[in-house]
Specification:
Oligomer: single chain
Shape: elongated
Largest sheet: 2 strands, antiparallel
Distance between the termini: 84 Å
Helix content: over 70%
Amino acid sequence: MDMTTPRYSLGKQIAGLFAHSLCARLRRIGLLGVAGALLGVLAGAPAIAQTGVTLPPNAQKVPVSLPHLYWHFLVYQNHLDQVAAQRQQQGKDGSYLRNHFQQKLSFTDAQFAVVRSTAQRLQAELKGVDAQAKAIIDADRAANTLERGAPHTWRPVPPELRALQQQHEDLIQSEVSNLKGALGPELAARLDAFLQSRVAPKASAETPHPGPTSDEIRKHLVQATQKQKEAQQ
């Protein structure tokens, strides 16, 4: 292939695009990841803000775990497969998208077919979990809508949402473990090394601050009330 052709240039940039996309995904806290923030910090922070108490930053950067590197790699590969299929339906060539990572990893069609099937299955499973989480969050918001000017109150994260968050993580762990088992030690190690060397250095995740506990909120409010009384004397 002529290395100056647009196809080669685009194919050459896919790995960088993947890393950029991964970083963007991980910087945006996922639906289940923000559950605590939506139902905790956003409910309690305004009340604390009135007391003058300074809270820690909303998010902290942490290294991306290997299972989560797998997760986003699989999601992205599934996306490339879908785009390639669309191009094929339009009479265009999408093989350079579909096969880019397979070629980088030097996997055969049969070996990479395991990756593709895992990607499709995991995305469908996580989509179902996210839909359940969204329904719980929407229901909680509807049941706890505050009128303008009403005092904010602390609400803990519903236990059903915590259970779904754990289910989300368990699904990732299970599919990654099954994928490694299907690939075998040599190919799994090759994929590990690719993700750790080509993606991990450019990726970071953000975890939301869990927010203040109800006891901390109560303590700060009592202190603020006391200071206000002292100032009026």
